Amino acid sequence: xKIEWRDSGREPRCKPDPAFPQGxxxxxxxxxxxxxxxxxxxxxxxxGLYIIECPTCELRTGVTTAGRPDDPRSVKMACKPLPxxxxxxxxxxxxxxATWVEVKYxxxxxxxxxxxxxxxxxxxxxxxxxxxxxxxxxxxxxxxxPDPHAWRPLQKGDPA
Length: 160
Ligand SMILES: [Zn+2]
Description:
By secondary structure, the chain is an all-beta fold. The protein has strands at about 1-5, 25-30, 35-40, 45-55, 60-65, 70-80, 100-105, 110-120, 130-135, 140-145, 150-155. It folds into two domains: about 1-80, no CATH class; about 90-155, no CATH class. The protein is about 0% helix and about 45% strand. Zinc ion binds near residues 36 and 56.
């Protein structure tokens, strides 16, 4: 889960709710069968908002904080079913491992290209460091893709 803090710059004005001296476990899932869960930095610095994004379902939720003992310390949300495999998705949810997927990017002529690519992060003593999205080039080489903006799983029958 990606957690981003938005600081409101304000200190709390009211007293905390004495019923929750150890924080609140927020359940926003409404009893959904599939859920995602994350712990939150607790207590929050002061009044503000945590933006929580689930990389699996791409659901974004905002949770307010006050910098008090009754702040949320965890949140559970309903996990949306994943989009069908032919739907293009935001790169936030792209697999950051060696899985081959399809990505779309703009080439140097600003034309949208679709290629098979995978995330890679390596190098070291033997070769220069590399980190990012790469497609095959020739028999054994790889070329980096500057800034892909969408991805989807390999389509049925695609050779990986
Ligand atoms: Zn989720």
